[in-house]
Amino acid sequence: MSDSTLPPAFPPPSFHMVPGAPTPVAPFSHCVKVGPWLFVTGQMPTDPADDSAPLPEGIEAQTRRVMDNLVLVLEGVGYGLADVVQARVYITEFKRDYPGMNAVYRSYFAEGRLPARTCIGVTGLARDALVEVDFVAYRP
């Protein structure tokens, strides 16, 4: 293949900490942009205004906080929910909380624009959260 037929190379990755988004609970960036791709770190149900505040009670409230935190990160780098192409959801009480998490999660996306998704039951999450969600977004 000649150089003229090779796909264009992506610029180097850019690492982002978004003002106003929750302080990370571990050493990571809120998101990393590589060309048109955005990889958003899993968000916890923490209050972006007060990291030490107790987590919301129940799966619905925690899922809402997680999704709101993800929106903060997306918007902080010029993306939105319409750009999300893939999600991973981690929940600690799968049988109990799967329906409630799904109801809240679904409400954030436009009809016909649901990203591909994997949902995984896990034994524990940071701060004893019930749910964590991460995204991959794409904007050409």
UniProtKB/TrEMBL annotation:
Matching InterPro entries: RutC-like_sf, YjgF/YER057c/UK114
Organism annotation: Ancylobacter crimeensis
Protein name: RidA family protein
Stored Gene3D superfamilies: RutC-like
Transmembrane residue ranges: none
